[in-house]
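Reminder to self: keep the SMILES exactly as supplied, no canonicalising. Ligand is flavin-adenine dinucleotide.
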Amino acid sequence: MADIQFDEEFDFVVVGSGGGSMCAALVMRRAGKSVVVLEKTDLLGGTTSRSGGVMWIPNNRFMKEEGIEDSYEQAMAYMEATAGQSLDAPGTTLERRRAYVTEAPKVIDFLVQQGIKLRRAPSWPDYYDDRPGGSVPGRTVLADLFDTNELGAWKDKLRPNFMTVPAYHSEGFEISTFKSSWTGKMAMLRVGLRAAAAKVTGKAWTTAGGALQGRMLQAALKASVDLRVDSGVKGFIMDGGAVKGVVTETGGIERRIGARLGVLVNAGGFAQNQEMRDKYIPGTSVLYTATTPGDTGEMIRTMEDMGAALAQMNERVGNQMTIPPGHENTNGQGVSLGVVSGQMNYAKPHSIVVDQSGVRYMNEGGSYMAFCQNQLTRNETVPAVPSWWIQDEQSMKKYMFCGTMPGTKKPQQWYDSGFLVKADTIEDLAKKIDMDPAVLKASVDRFNAAARAGKDDEFKRGARAYDNWLGDHYHKPSHTLGTIDQAPFYAAKVWPGDVGTYGGVVTDVNARVLREDGTPIPGLYATGTSTASVMGRFYPGAGSSVGPSFVFGYLAAKHAANAGNQF
Ligand SMILES: Cc1cc2nc3c(=O)[nH]c(=O)nc-3n(C[C@H](O)[C@H](O)[C@H](O)COP(=O)(O)OP(=O)(O)OC[C@H]3O[C@@H](n4cnc5c(N)ncnc54)[C@H](O)[C@@H]3O)c2cc1C
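Structure tokens returned for the bound complex:
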């Protein structure tokens, strides 16, 4: 690199501050190497920091500690039964699936050794728990709540999480059933007391992805990782086909930064880029994404221009959403999941989702990715974007609706604007939303018969542990099937929103970026949603985005540092 001019040099340069970035940086520091993380926006942590922050980690240490059965073989069987079934998905080769299942538990061990406090989600079934190797208790790992005051001057540099109450996911799920259970009421009380205590003690709790990335940031600062905001990378510095550094721009001033061991791109996907959506995932819109402003895809394009192969570009992690007026993503900040009805809502009893002709067309349980794939597929033959979420008074009384508490009066503006439609009969409801009343009535009647029988033969809702887990754990005999028969009846639109894209550059087992001919571009690594996912066209379980981002960030750093099996 003697004849290339740099403003400064590091051993390793990380582009973006997403899930795998700080994990890779910690590996580098443990290997005694210098590393800089360059973040384009003014906040660190990426969409990961806003997210649920859960990671799908098969065979992890917490499962072992609790005596929950899992093994490499079981996890591989499950990966083969899900990700392995993907067509045309070079992000999920058998070798990469093996690397994931082998390395993911080691990443958790490594993070715990770095002082990151993690735990198991007490219950979060795999999304296809009925397939070979599926786990009903679940393989999901998350961070302990984190007091952001511990970050000192960096506190305001952490991207906030979407959850504003200091609750674990499990508590949030319990609270959602507080009308029907004592467990829910107790969870509400516990979280309320925690929030009140924080006011007295001055704790600034963050949870979920905020806690994960807050803890990662704290560890990175302790390990003297150089972290920079407002430092967007606009291109690579090349020498003889190899990546030798990057060019950043801050306040209009360019800086050339050398990377002796390599560059890791962890710059997110393209959920905030309508032009790229129109090209790769037509029929979807930036209006319904919950990602953060930096998810604009330019690094994927830059790598493509350098010869990187792209794959799975038409996949995304769909997330069904009912969005109150004024809460669409019109300003690039992303839809706030705190104000929409999302995946937790549609599998509760007393509601179904139908297309615009009034016909039910899928199991409303299952993974959010599969839900939105079904919606887009249906829309190819019958208008289904948006679809309609049909529910009755029992549902409104028992469950939350778009951030409002069960049984509370909904804003009049919701009715006036047509966002929430109400009628005394199913037939009148159908008329109000331009549907054939007989068709909607027949759909509801069929569902009611299934609910009474406790078995949905048509779409098998409730046949998996996961569907039931999404439902109301206190509703019997089925957690997810309940009749729609108490007036008034309600309808609201459901959009195929998303929480991220799932395609990008093709990488190998060491996260090296590959060309179309399968050869690596020397010096260039990538992880996270900048890459074609190791999960292919499936979402096997909660944490299938953040988990791989960490794991392939870890593998990239180990490879670049030539660290072998040190960690
Ligand atoms: C509300 C919500 C909840 C979710 N919950 C979960 C969950 O619990 N588990 C899960 O697995 N997935 C979840 N997802 C999806 C998941 O959060 C994302 O897919 C994942 O975090 C993406 O991580 P990443 O590592 O690819 O990058 P990100 O975390 O998106 O970070 C990329 C960073 O790169 C920066 N960047 C972009 N371009 C440049 C550039 N040119 N130069 C420098 N920096 C750049 C961006 O600004 C950003 O900060 C959720 C998403 C949302 C929105």
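Points to follow up:
The CA atoms of residues 145 and 320 lie 27 Å apart.
DSSP finds 17 helices and 20 strands in the chain.
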